[in-house]
From TrEMBL, chains A, B:
It comes from Psychrosphaera ytuae. Residues 16-330 form the Enoyl reductase (ER) domain. Keywords: Oxidoreductase. GO terms for molecular function: oxidoreductase activity, acting on the CH-CH group of donors, NAD or NADP as acceptor. It comes from the Bacteria. This is NADP-dependent oxidoreductase.
Length: 332, 332
């Protein structure tokens, strides 16, 4: 038993920023453990763009929304502090869906033990959703070939930064689109991208012409926004577009139109969307693809760590403003 | 030697209808045959939407445009009437690219002999570009599964009518979008489609809701136009969109925007374009897939035959107006 604190979703967003009115803070004693259950004290919880979808009651979404009144959904890392489950002992570190709360009770389903000597930050930045998403999207959907040119929007984001590094490791020329000079500097000078575009200050068309004079073969889309049309019109024949996120449209009542499909015919393009819940069964395989790159030092990360449960609310808005520098997470 | 008549392209279209000013009619004597050459008297020539691309000087197009001054490009069927080539004898029937002219000289490259007892109309309607395009697009790109729902725009067109019949033969539920009640009647009562939508007169959203209450799995796009967005918003998870043609946009200076990619993520859609020139090497395999369906009577066709070389010019505009009833071709 422990004193739990949790944020419950009580109001859905309807466009515009996320605010504290949408959540209720509840304190409670954790209940006594049943057979096979164990209690996890969460140490870091992850903030991800997918959460906007979870907060919205969109029947068309690929996973059900968080019900009003329920603890907000999130993944995290924690330590077992009490256990009635022989497979999870006190002191074990685990990762999985734990929600916006200090303590979570589990029977083990959907939680994975962390055996390797990696930090919470590395787990949430690389081995959890961002790294799996980047690996599935780039290697399985994007089918990159050495020598090709890849452009990734949200290039300094949690997924984009890994996509770019994986693509470099696969021998591609990599351009990242970012929203600040600081991020541009980071992806080029720290992560090894070939070039960066600051979509807020650069002349997009001229810059794209300069950086991709021979066109673009793989376009990994995390953001949407006006640059989408400029990139699309520069796709090479047989180009592949991996649609992973459209953060620019998540807070809009009406999404911006996409490009005409005329180029889809002329260039024989493939535009393909994916989401990780379809591929949870393939996680072992994805980790096998990703881990060697991490172990050989080819995948660097940067965590942007907020402090305390309440900071999660404001933290989500950083996805719209682009203020976050690296993978967003909350230290509990 | 024979008296040839040909239409040469002398002016490119710039949006709007095709007219006689764009062509020059030239009469000439066919030159003497060189070694290995033979002379074909064309009997029927095909009119295809791809011709708009060939007439336009679009450097991004997948095959080079017709040069100004050259005979307009087209495929056709004909009979060998003189030969210096041991493989093509006088009396042989051949199909291939022959151009807008009465007589064509060839060394055999790109021409195929027609050995089977099929009419010119059947060759151009089923075994040539339309049937190959439908087979490649539906079976290879669309990956249809029995029990799924398919919608095809241009459902009474040369490609669309074959797509729908192939899909029926594969066990799908098939809806065709057409531009007249006569065509709707034809595809449902003659070709066996499950239903038709007249995009000019039906209330599109209500009709789609009625005919596809469980959504759409495969969307074979031949036309574009406003119905595109309504179909797109009804795609099921893991749906496939085969982009084969956008005739509604070919005559516009600025193509209409496409749908937002938000649904591409939510529904994990694949949008893929293709054109036959990439797959000419696979024609034997495609014919192997197609022929059994034709031979068992599952692929019916309807030819819309215009009379005489000059009728080709006006004929092309029928693709915009939708006046043609069946595969357009010109009898010479």
């Amino acid at each position: 038993m422990a004193k739990n604190v949790a944020l419950h979703l009580i109001k859905r967003p309807s466009g515009g920023p996320i605010n504290h009115d949408m959540f209720e803070r509840k304190e409670s004693e954790t209940p006594a453990l049943k057979d096979n259950e164990f209690l996890v004290k969460q140490t870091h919880m992850s903030l991800d763009p997918a959460m906007f979808g979870w907060m919205t009651d969109d029947r068309e979404s690929y996973i059900p929304p968080v019900e009003l009144g329920d603890v907000m959904r999130s993944s995290g890392v924690g330590e077992v502090v009490e256990s009635n489950n022989p497979n999870f002992k006190v002191g074990d570190r685990v990762m999985g869906m734990m929600g916006w709360q200090q303590y979570a009770i589990s029977n083990g389903q959907g939680l994975n033990k962390i055996e390797a000597p990696v930090s919470d930050e590395q787990v949430l930045s690389v081995f959890a959703l961002p790294g799996l998403t980047a690996t599935q999207g780039l290697l399985k959907v994007g089918q990159p070939k050495s020598g090709e040119t890849l452009i990734v929007t949200g290039g300094a984001g949690s997924v984009g930064s890994i996509v770019g590094q994986l693509a470099k490791a696969e021998g591609l020329r990599v351009i990242g689109v970012v929203g600040s000079d600081e991020k541009a500097d980071w992806i080029v000078n720290e992560l090894g991208f070939d070039a960066a575009i600051n979509y807020k200050t650069d002349a997009l068309e001229a810059k794209l012409d300069e950086l991709a004079p021979d066109g673009i073969d793989v376009y990994f889309e995390n953001t949407g926004g006006p640059i989408q049309h400029h990139i699309f019109s520069r796709m090479n024949a047989h180009g592949r577009i991996v649609v992973c996120g459209l953060i620019a449209d998540y807070s809009k009542a009406e999404p911006a139109p996409g490009p005409s499909w005329l180029n889809v015919i002329k260039k024989r393009l493939r535009i393909e969307g994916f989401t990780m819940p379809d591929h949870f069964g393939e996680i072992p395989e994805l980790l096998q693809l990703l881990t060697p790159y991490v172990m050989s030092g080819k995948i660097k990360h940067r965590a942007h760590v907020l402090d305390g449960l309440d900071s999660a609310v404001e933290g989500l808005n950083m996805f719209f403003t682009g203020e976050n520098k690296g993978k967003l997470m909350v230290k509990l």
